Amino acid sequence: MNKKYLLPLLFVFVILTSSALLSAQYNTTLNQGWNLLSFPLDPLDQNTNKTISLNQGWNIIGYSSDNPLLWDSAIFNNGTHTKNTTSASSSNWIQYSLYYYEDNSYKLVPGNDNYLRKGKAYWLYSLEPNLELILPNAGGSVQTYYNKFYWPNVYITKDNETKTIDDAELSSWIQRTIYEFDQDYNLITDYTDPWKGYWLYAFEDNLTLSMEYSVSGTIYDMDTGDPLPGVNISFYPASTYNPFNGNGNYSALVPKQVPDIITDENGNYYASLPDGVYHMVMQGSDEKDFNVHANKGKGKLKKDPELDEDSNTTNFNAEGHILHSGEYEHQGNKYVCGSTVDFTMFGVNNGQTDETITFLVQDHTQSGNPHSPIVYYGNISNQNESLTVPAGNKTHKNFEFKVPCSYEEGKYDIHVVWNNEKWHKIGNFFVIPDNTAPEVNVQSDTWTYTNQTVSIEYAAFDPAEPGTIEFYRIFVGGFTDDSVSVTIDKDITMDGDDIDTIIDNDADYVGLGGSMKSVNLTYGTSGHYTARFIVTDDAGNSDYEDINIDVYITEDEADVIGSSLYTLFGIDWDFQYDQNITSSPASPTQTLGVDRWDEFSRIADEYSTPEDGFDENTKSSLDQVINNCDGPNYIKTIGLSTYTEFNQSLYAYFMDIQCRCNKNPWFGAPPCP
Predict the structure, then answer these.
(1) DSSP result, 551-610
(2) Is the pTM value of this prediction over 0.85?
(3) Average pLDDT, the chain
């Protein structure tokens, strides 16, 4: 990056992926077996003391300086007194010897070596609590809360083949997990610190471990060209803030109270972050304009002469930039139909009258000719497509251009338009086919009653096409959902009133949006339905997911069915609704509330819904009375049912006690088989 931005608030959009290797920060050789290592990190300082707090008992310390340190020159402090190594040992503060691990064996300092050396770690035994080890004039890695390294960014090389640490483990080169010792062994999966020691196991010999910073660079004063120390830098995941919303108000992007990193005395910064998309926000005490120089990684952008166009006026100038632009190989500069190209236009007006600019899109899919066809022309009267720069002022504004699905695959340019003429080129972008289908996930199967709504939650989204800006945003931004629509077919089956004469012909809900949403469905007739949720993206790709919805009759509907069947069997001599009765000799003291009861025939039934509270033991006891035909009271519980299911269950119950239990046939009752 090499852009000018205004401070005190400055942001840079940073994409970090495991394929973009930067220059190695630190390399070390791994031997087969266990390796005891320290990981030095930039930034460095010179000739400063380093202080390491010690626990009583065993400690592992790492050495993270280029300058070897004679062990006998180390100093120990107990909060009151200070002693050198020899004196601390004779006073029983420490054990004099250090142990380091090399070539699969322990070695001594002093003995095998008299110095502490870069990249090595050492066992040290403290006999006293709360001691401090001071390494005079050691310099080396700065001891700050932010000087850490993200362990998954490590690379392993074997015979000129380099792999990520995850792939190296899959290839059985190493065990990716590392361990530190802080009164006990701790597994480390995220960040390492300098001046600590770590155990790492290698299955192969002569491997090279490389620590790569994901972003680094230098910040300069634009006026003097001098590097700026002490600049606070904060990183935000791209999903946290979107700088391209509205009129370019950057006030939402604020430096953190405790910044992630701070530039060193030479204006350098180094950061190790997980793969992802970030905003880099900077603020310095002098609130000057900064010129940001950050590592680009592999590859260079080709020369584009249209980017160097100058205006023909000294009173007004307008330019712009696309968030991601460059050659086709540039990560994130590819778009599919329906996605948005984010760009900024800014102008400086030294004249006496206001000036207004808009933009155009030029099709370069067939050639790079400056006179290639213009496929979109902004509306100068539309505030969403134009920028007015008042006389004597400078201003900027952010824009979104949604890529139409009519655009063919290839390269497109965006230009500033001033006085109805194509002017400065803002940048380019590439359109590629959208071959990735959208996805929809629906909650598990559910149920409801007739004519009552049931709320269904779904998540519909469009996974990013590999290589596009959305693909790189997705590491931290979740999924994109602004270009999908959802259609819901309440019933793709053949039962119930809502019958499909053609499968999927009754699209009951059309054009619902994506993301996490909830929709209320209502069914007028009981039955077992299959609802289909269909998601479609702007490119016409689609997917669906089915969900089973059981629709049961209500208590009122059960009353209507029950009344007709009691009448059919002639057992409505003393028919009553909602009665409390004694259940059976098996539990003579239990009183139950039932839906229907005939005192004369001592027949009852209960449409048992979750609201009734009939427990399974009670149901089992009542069924046992019917099975044994040992009334006098017969009570049938029928669970949640459709109209047909309830009617069949109640009919079968009446036939069973009439025919199998030898109850006298009721007048008009159907004959036993």
Answers:
(1) EE--HHHHHHHHHHHHHHTT--TTEEEEEEEEEETTEEEEEEEEEEEETTTTEEEEE--T
(2) no
(3) 77
Q: Is the CATH number 2.60.40.1930 carried by domain 439-552?
A: yes
Nearest-angstrom CA–CA distance, 108 and 401:
66
CA angle 652, 653, 656 (to 5 degrees): 85
**Hey, is 620 helix, strand or coil?**
helix
| 305-431 against 439-552: fold identical | yes
- Cβ atoms of 94 and 76 within 8 Å: the answer is yes
AA identity, residue 237:
P
Measured CA to CA, the distance from residue 303 to residue 301 in angstroms comes to 7
* Confidence check: pLDDT of 84 > 70: yes
pLDDT digits (tens, 9 = 90+) for 186-213: 888 878 888 999 999 899 999 999 886 6
In the chain, count H helices and then E strands: 6, 51
pLDDT in tens, 217-229: 677 665 566 777 8
Q: Give the DSSP H/E element, type plus range, for residue 653.
A: helix 643-659
Contact between 181 and 197 (Cβ < 8 Å): yes
pLDDT digits (tens, 9 = 90+) for 230-254: 777 777 665 444 433 333 333 444 5
Parse the chain into domains and list their residue ranges. 4-17+222-294, 24-211, 305-431, 439-552, 556-659
The CATH fold assigned to 305-431 is Immunoglobulin-like (2.60.40)
Instruction: Name every residue whose Cβ is closer than 8 Å to that of residue 164 and which is 6 or more positions away in sequence.
Output: 18, 152, 154, 155, 156
- The DSSP output letter for 326 is S
Beta carbons of 299 and 220 less than 8 angstroms apart: no
For residue 289, give both structure tokens: 């304009």
Query: Rounded CA gap, 409 and 538, in Å?
Result: 15
Q: How many CB atoms lie within 10 A of CB 167?
A: 14
Q: Give which of 491, 559, 558 is closest to 522, Cα–Cα.
A: 491
Instruction: Report CA-CA distances (Å) from 152 to 168, 181, 185, 276, 424.
Output: 11, 20, 20, 13, 42
E strands of 247-381, at which residues?
261-262, 268-271, 276-283, 290-294, 316-322, 334-335, 340-349, 355-363, 374-377
Query: Mean pLDDT over residues 584-603, rounded?
Result: 72
Greater model confidence, 253 or 639: 639
Across the range 601-627, mean pLDDT stands at 85
| pLDDT, position 653 | 93
Q: Residues near 266 by Cβ (< 8 Å), separated by ≥ 6?
A: 218, 227, 229
